[in-house]
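Bumping with the actual sequence this time:
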Amino acid sequence: MTDGGAILIRDYFNPFYKGVNAALDGFAKSNGAHTLPIGDGFSVAFRR
């Protein structure tokens, strides 16, 4: 992930896909990214 880059992730908050948010939180932490809710109730953006 490049500096200033963003990745959009769907189903971060979806209760049917347990473990997605934990895996993506680990990815964000290891890449120095921040999680930002998009507002549709399921998705987030990672920004670095």
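The tokens above came from a reply further down the thread. Residues 6-47 form one domain.
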